[in-house]
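Researcher: Go.
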Amino acid sequence: MYSNPIRPCLVWLALLPIMGMPSAAWADMPDPIPDEIAAAIADARRPIDQRGLDAARKPARIIAFAGIKSGDRVADFMPGNAYFTRIFSSLVGPAGRVYAFVPAEQMAHCPASEIAGTLAIARDPGYANVTVIAGDGMAGAPERAPFDRIIVTAAAEEIPQALTAQLAKGGKMVVPVGPRDDVQHIVRLTKEVDGTLTREKLIAVRFVPLLPGQAREL
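Model: Structure:
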Protein backbone atom coordinates (compact mmCIF):
# COMPACT_ATOMS: atom_id res chain seq x y z
CA MET A 1 0.00 0.00 0.00
CA TYR A 2 1.23 3.45 -0.92
CA SER A 3 1.67 5.53 2.24
CA ASN A 4 3.43 8.72 1.10
CA PRO A 5 1.61 11.73 2.60
CA ILE A 6 1.56 13.51 -0.78
CA ARG A 7 -1.78 12.85 -2.40
CA PRO A 8 -1.31 10.59 -5.45
CA CYS A 9 -4.01 12.58 -7.25
CA LEU A 10 -1.78 15.60 -7.82
CA VAL A 11 0.31 14.74 -10.84
CA TRP A 12 1.93 18.07 -11.74
CA LEU A 13 3.66 20.13 -9.07
CA ALA A 14 5.81 22.12 -11.47
CA LEU A 15 7.14 21.77 -14.98
CA LEU A 16 9.00 25.03 -15.30
CA PRO A 17 12.57 25.32 -13.96
CA ILE A 18 12.56 25.97 -10.21
CA MET A 19 16.26 26.66 -9.77
CA GLY A 20 19.28 27.45 -11.90
CA MET A 21 19.26 27.79 -15.67
CA PRO A 22 17.69 25.41 -18.19
CA SER A 23 20.12 23.06 -19.90
CA ALA A 24 21.41 23.58 -23.44
CA ALA A 25 19.10 20.78 -24.58
CA TRP A 26 16.09 22.79 -23.36
CA ALA A 27 17.37 25.98 -24.98
CA ASP A 28 17.91 24.16 -28.28
CA MET A 29 14.29 23.06 -28.68
CA PRO A 30 12.95 23.80 -32.20
CA ASP A 31 11.74 27.32 -32.84
CA PRO A 32 9.39 27.70 -34.59
CA ILE A 33 7.46 24.65 -33.45
CA PRO A 34 7.39 21.86 -36.06
CA ASP A 35 4.09 21.80 -37.96
CA GLU A 36 3.11 18.31 -36.82
CA ILE A 37 3.57 19.21 -33.15
CA ALA A 38 1.72 22.51 -33.56
CA ALA A 39 -1.17 20.67 -35.23
CA ALA A 40 -1.41 18.13 -32.39
CA ILE A 41 -1.45 20.90 -29.78
CA ALA A 42 -4.08 22.82 -31.78
CA ASP A 43 -6.32 19.73 -32.05
CA ALA A 44 -9.89 20.99 -31.56
CA ARG A 45 -10.77 17.88 -29.55
CA ARG A 46 -8.64 19.10 -26.66
CA PRO A 47 -10.71 20.66 -23.82
CA ILE A 48 -10.50 24.44 -23.60
CA ASP A 49 -9.27 24.32 -20.00
CA GLN A 50 -6.34 22.11 -21.01
CA ARG A 51 -5.39 24.38 -23.90
CA GLY A 52 -5.31 27.20 -21.36
CA LEU A 53 -2.45 25.41 -19.58
CA ASP A 54 -0.18 25.27 -22.62
CA ALA A 55 1.70 28.49 -21.88
CA ALA A 56 2.83 27.12 -18.51
CA ARG A 57 3.36 23.47 -19.38
CA LYS A 58 5.14 24.10 -22.70
CA PRO A 59 4.02 20.85 -24.33
CA ALA A 60 5.80 21.57 -27.62
CA ARG A 61 9.19 21.59 -25.91
CA ILE A 62 8.57 18.40 -23.95
CA ILE A 63 7.28 16.60 -27.07
CA ALA A 64 10.22 17.81 -29.16
CA PHE A 65 12.62 16.78 -26.39
CA ALA A 66 11.05 13.30 -26.43
CA GLY A 67 11.11 13.17 -30.24
CA ILE A 68 7.58 11.77 -30.55
CA LYS A 69 6.49 11.33 -34.16
CA SER A 70 3.78 9.78 -36.31
CA GLY A 71 3.54 6.01 -35.97
CA ASP A 72 5.29 5.81 -32.58
CA ARG A 73 4.21 3.50 -29.76
CA VAL A 74 4.12 5.77 -26.72
CA ALA A 75 3.79 4.79 -23.05
CA ASP A 76 2.29 7.66 -21.03
CA PHE A 77 2.73 7.14 -17.28
CA MET A 78 0.62 9.06 -14.73
CA PRO A 79 -1.53 10.80 -17.39
CA GLY A 80 -3.73 12.59 -14.84
CA ASN A 81 -6.54 14.22 -16.82
CA ALA A 82 -5.04 13.16 -20.16
CA TYR A 83 -3.39 16.51 -20.88
CA PHE A 84 -0.49 14.95 -22.77
CA THR A 85 -2.35 11.77 -23.73
CA ARG A 86 -4.66 13.70 -26.08
CA ILE A 87 -1.71 15.45 -27.74
CA PHE A 88 0.22 12.20 -28.10
CA SER A 89 -2.83 10.54 -29.68
CA SER A 90 -3.10 13.22 -32.34
CA LEU A 91 0.64 13.25 -32.98
CA VAL A 92 1.21 9.50 -33.43
CA GLY A 93 -1.90 9.17 -35.60
CA PRO A 94 -3.76 5.99 -36.57
CA ALA A 95 -0.50 4.16 -37.32
CA GLY A 96 0.73 4.75 -33.76
CA ARG A 97 -0.45 3.73 -30.32
CA VAL A 98 -0.59 5.44 -26.93
CA TYR A 99 -0.77 3.45 -23.69
CA ALA A 100 -1.90 5.60 -20.76
CA PHE A 101 -0.93 4.03 -17.42
CA VAL A 102 -3.04 5.20 -14.45
CA PRO A 103 -1.77 3.90 -11.08
CA ALA A 104 -4.27 1.63 -9.37
CA GLU A 105 -3.80 3.67 -6.18
CA GLN A 106 -4.88 6.77 -8.06
CA MET A 107 -7.93 4.98 -9.45
CA ALA A 108 -8.93 3.87 -5.96
CA HIS A 109 -8.42 7.06 -3.95
CA CYS A 110 -8.61 10.13 -6.19
CA PRO A 111 -11.73 12.15 -6.98
CA ALA A 112 -13.06 11.04 -10.34
CA SER A 113 -12.76 14.60 -11.66
CA GLU A 114 -8.96 14.47 -11.38
CA ILE A 115 -8.63 11.55 -13.80
CA ALA A 116 -11.91 12.02 -15.68
CA GLY A 117 -10.15 12.97 -18.91
CA THR A 118 -8.21 9.72 -19.04
CA LEU A 119 -11.26 7.63 -18.12
CA ALA A 120 -13.26 9.41 -20.83
CA ILE A 121 -10.63 8.62 -23.47
CA ALA A 122 -10.94 4.93 -22.62
CA ARG A 123 -14.55 5.07 -23.84
CA ASP A 124 -14.12 7.57 -26.70
CA PRO A 125 -13.99 6.09 -30.23
CA GLY A 126 -12.30 9.30 -31.35
CA TYR A 127 -9.24 8.12 -29.42
CA ALA A 128 -9.17 4.60 -30.80
CA ASN A 129 -5.36 4.60 -30.77
CA VAL A 130 -5.27 5.04 -26.96
CA THR A 131 -5.38 2.15 -24.48
CA VAL A 132 -5.89 3.08 -20.82
CA ILE A 133 -4.38 0.71 -18.25
CA ALA A 134 -4.69 0.85 -14.46
CA GLY A 135 -1.56 -0.62 -12.95
CA ASP A 136 1.95 -0.27 -11.62
CA GLY A 137 3.69 2.88 -12.82
CA MET A 138 7.05 1.40 -11.86
CA ALA A 139 6.63 -1.93 -13.67
CA GLY A 140 5.13 -0.80 -16.97
CA ALA A 141 3.65 -3.44 -19.24
CA PRO A 142 6.21 -5.89 -20.66
CA GLU A 143 3.50 -7.59 -22.69
CA ARG A 144 2.92 -4.32 -24.61
CA ALA A 145 6.60 -3.56 -25.15
CA PRO A 146 8.71 -2.41 -26.86
CA PHE A 147 7.81 1.29 -26.78
CA ASP A 148 9.38 3.90 -29.05
CA ARG A 149 8.84 6.60 -26.45
CA ILE A 150 8.14 6.45 -22.71
CA ILE A 151 6.93 9.64 -21.02
CA VAL A 152 6.70 9.69 -17.23
CA THR A 153 5.06 12.64 -15.48
CA ALA A 154 5.85 11.42 -11.97
CA ALA A 155 9.20 11.27 -10.21
CA ALA A 156 11.37 8.20 -9.79
CA GLU A 157 14.15 8.24 -7.18
CA GLU A 158 16.23 6.18 -9.61
CA ILE A 159 15.87 5.36 -13.29
CA PRO A 160 13.13 2.68 -13.45
CA GLN A 161 15.01 -0.32 -14.87
CA ALA A 162 11.77 -2.13 -15.67
CA LEU A 163 10.82 0.72 -17.97
CA THR A 164 14.17 1.07 -19.73
CA ALA A 165 13.97 -2.66 -20.47
CA GLN A 166 10.72 -1.98 -22.34
CA LEU A 167 12.24 0.78 -24.48
CA ALA A 168 12.86 -0.10 -28.13
CA LYS A 169 16.36 0.28 -29.54
CA GLY A 170 16.62 3.87 -30.71
CA GLY A 171 13.79 4.75 -28.32
CA LYS A 172 13.72 7.58 -25.80
CA MET A 173 12.35 7.90 -22.28
CA VAL A 174 11.69 11.22 -20.56
CA VAL A 175 11.34 10.96 -16.78
CA PRO A 176 11.79 13.20 -13.70
CA VAL A 177 14.47 11.66 -11.49
CA GLY A 178 15.41 12.59 -7.93
CA PRO A 179 14.51 12.38 -4.22
CA ARG A 180 10.82 12.22 -3.39
CA ASP A 181 10.89 15.31 -1.16
CA ASP A 182 13.51 17.37 -2.97
CA VAL A 183 14.35 18.77 -6.38
CA GLN A 184 14.27 16.36 -9.31
CA HIS A 185 15.50 16.77 -12.89
CA ILE A 186 13.82 15.79 -16.11
CA VAL A 187 16.12 13.28 -17.80
CA ARG A 188 16.10 11.98 -21.38
CA LEU A 189 17.38 8.45 -21.87
CA THR A 190 18.13 7.15 -25.37
CA LYS A 191 18.59 3.41 -25.91
CA GLU A 192 21.37 2.90 -28.43
CA VAL A 193 21.41 0.03 -30.94
CA ASP A 194 23.72 -1.94 -28.64
CA GLY A 195 21.27 -1.56 -25.75
CA THR A 196 23.29 0.98 -23.78
CA LEU A 197 21.59 4.11 -22.45
CA THR A 198 22.66 7.69 -23.09
CA ARG A 199 21.48 10.09 -20.37
CA GLU A 200 20.84 13.85 -20.72
CA LYS A 201 19.64 16.13 -17.91
CA LEU A 202 17.10 18.84 -18.74
CA ILE A 203 15.62 21.10 -16.04
CA ALA A 204 14.94 21.07 -12.30
CA VAL A 205 11.32 20.26 -11.42
CA ARG A 206 9.06 18.88 -8.68
CA PHE A 207 6.71 15.97 -9.37
CA VAL A 208 4.77 13.52 -7.23
CA PRO A 209 6.20 9.97 -7.10
CA LEU A 210 5.44 7.00 -9.31
CA LEU A 211 2.87 4.69 -7.73
CA PRO A 212 2.59 0.90 -7.63
CA GLY A 213 -0.47 -1.22 -8.31
CA GLN A 214 -1.71 -4.28 -10.21
CA ALA A 215 -2.11 -3.74 -13.97
CA ARG A 216 -5.45 -4.09 -15.72
CA GLU A 217 -6.84 -2.63 -18.94
CA LEU A 218 -9.88 -0.37 -18.66
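Model: The beta strands are 12-14, 73-77, 97-103, 130-135, 147-152, 167-177, 184-191, 197-207, 216-217.
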